[in-house]
Amino acid sequence: MSLWYLYSVLSMVFGAATVLAVKKAGAAGLSVNATTLYLWGIPAVILLGYMASRGENIVPAAQKIPILAGVAVFSFLGGILMNKALYIAPNPGYVAAIVGASTLFIVFASWFFFASEITLIHLAGTLLIVGGVVLMGF
Length: 138
Description:
138 residues, mainly alpha
């Protein structure tokens, strides 16, 4: 098994736990903004300590700052909107499925921007995912 596959499966498990925890936070009456702050703030502090313990440089080169700013903006917008959707959706799985439709965009954008491969079997799997997302809207 490839390491990227193992990481992906573990990310799926922890991502699912996060979705359910965010839904629970909403049901407990916590604000979306407070939940999102803790969702990112505590891991940021943990990661900072982890990087420091490994001696990693946390200050990027100046030419890399626009890339990191873009990552931060996209992450913020995607995260806050997903959390808002999780708070009001009848089932958090519906939100997760719709957010998962980003797979189709990512597959084609990766091909365009990074020359990543697209095989017929992976394209078929991606289209099945998107088809399921369309069904979620009914």
